[in-house]
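User: Structure tokens for both sequences below?

Assistant:
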Amino acid sequence: MKVFSTLEVPVRRNLVILFAAALFFWCSMASLLPTLPGYVEDIGGTKQEIGTVMGGFAIGLLLFRPRLGRMVDRQSRKAVLLLGIAVAAIAPLGYLFVKSIPLLIALRAFHGISIAAFTTAYSTLVVDLSPVSQRGEIIGYMSLVQPIGVALGPAVGGFLQEQVGYTPLFLFAAGLAVVSAIGACAIGEAKGQGGREKVGDAAAPPGNIPFWRLLLSPRLRIPTLVMLLIGLAFGAMSTFVPLYIRETKVDLNPGWFYTAAAIASFSLRLFIGRASDRYGRGLFITASLACYCAAMWMLSQANSAFTFLLAGAIEGSGGGIFFPMMIALISDRSSSTERGRVFALCVGGFDLGMAIAGPAFGSVAQQLSYKGIFTISTGLAFLALVIFLTQSNKDLPHSLKFAFGRERDKYAL
């Protein structure tokens, strides 16, 4: 991590504080990953209702991310970051009192605002503070916070739920978010530092392009579609793996599945960002999509603890490459004056996939089985791979070359 020694002291300080605040935030969010599906089932929810409740999280993401993206661009990165943390502190307290399915859906939608606000502001701040030539490397290191949080949070959350019940778990999640807020208050936005382009840069698109024109622009359309398809697969995994493990009667704490994924994700993020600055983003995005195909197929066949853990590690490898590389790709394709909205748009594709995954796959589980869910998810991941290979750049030859690391991104600013 020698790159941090080359940064100015205020920039390095901001990145360290931002990382620490994000670590507590992700631990809070991840502590509920393996436990909430079981909580809904324990209060009488059906498989479809479990999917609907878990998918409700993405409703808040979808409804609020565009507005929050505009706030990030036009008002304050830090204020939006703190808003996300505040919601993460309040929402777990609601689970202490809510016992009905409709109210749980509403509470999950509210909770989803936390991710919409935090991730949009966090990604924008990181890119603001990153020199363009080292953008991929710094994004890779700063993205380590998510797998670390997802490694620690589910294991601790699953342990608390098993040993002392849901009430201490929900209080624990809220407390972690409060600690995150205390740290985030010390962050400075450091406007104009790092890789932020000048507003008057002729190469940068104007910052007032309408949201739907951004969506339909060639530079963002395919990343958004790929994020949507992977969001569907990821939503199926995050919602139904704990119940799938319970149904197969495999002796495995579901939290360890997410821990295996997070460890693999962490290991790869140490190296991928720097390599992508040298070899381009396309090769690594292709590899990540291939990992998702393999992981979803393994889950469709899983019947032992080893298979579940191996599938988790492969999915974590895919996620560890996919998310920082997609953030780097859309950063390369956007200017500082539109970056919040661009992140909101492209990551919103992932949100939409997660929103659809819960209720849609819940219906599949009712009619077929959890294995059927992951068979469909395998097909979705494969479709994302094919689309990226053939449509990621200006035409088919350039797309193939970019996707295999043979050519730079033609849409990069």
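Moving on to the next sequence.
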Amino acid sequence: MLHFSISERLFHFKQPAGTSRGVYLTRRSWMVEVTDDDMPGAVGVGECAPLPQLSCDDIPDYAEVLQGICQQVQASGRLDYELLQPYPSMLFGLETALMTLRGRRGVIYDTPFTRGEIGIPLNGLVWMGTHEEMLARMEEKIQQGFRCIKFKIGAIDFQKELDLICRARERFAQDKLEIRLDANGAFAPDVALSRLEMLAPYGIHSIEQPIRQHQWEAMADLCQRSPIPIALDEELIGVNIPEEKMRLLDTIHPAYIILKPSLHGGLHGAEEWIMMARERGIGSWVTSALESNVGLSAIAQFAAHVYGCPPAMPQGLGTGMLFTDNVEMPIGIEGEKMFYHPED
């Protein structure tokens, strides 16, 4: 029989994490531990971490609902994926807890990554801030060896952001540095295209969510006319039914989709998105959603499993390891790559 225990954790950022939706100073997570009477001594752990005002399961009674779902899984001995569709962060935590319980020493997928043989290339993340702060962060990422940098934009004056990207491109050509952008829906639909046209000369790989979600017609038109490939992120939140996922992809047809398991249906739902996108010639990569190292380790293992080792494109796992009071896990970032250390 399965047994669950839940503990709430409040993590503190090493530095403020700025997005166009605001600045995060702390991050609340619920850690789920699971044991099995048939597996003495084995413990599985998963992280349930909804993002405030963004996750579709960011609800006031989160802890109570999670407790009730754990009791249902304990009684049935299995996850009901259909029941858990509205609760992607809970699904992610529960499925990874069960997978680490049954895996070898916490390994979810046996890959060259989890065997410590190959690292996963990452994009270096430049958080929003003042022009000077973002410039310093860009320099730091370049010095660390990142060849793909993602800028969070939309919080300061657009001309200053344009200047920052111009400086990056003046120093490094496209074959030396890949530039990704994430607007978090910051552009108004009537100015989005003109701003994308101003950004295009700098050889941008892609831009995430240039306008806010739930504007399918406007987003589809932008995807068709944009000189920069568009990636969907927030647009996928709350779209959990397979038929609705297909309708979204067929309507908007972006260049890429970006999967955060905590937001997009757990590992189960994220893999479903990836397979549907592949069938339509749409690229994808995965990223973390400000989880601690517990969630980050699971997402990194998933990336190595679903995209191969190493993945063809840098993954968005650079948002991990952000806390002063993080959880120790056998992962680490060396240069521009994340490695798994099975001996730890």
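User: Anything stand out in the second?

Assistant: The radius of gyration is 20 Å.
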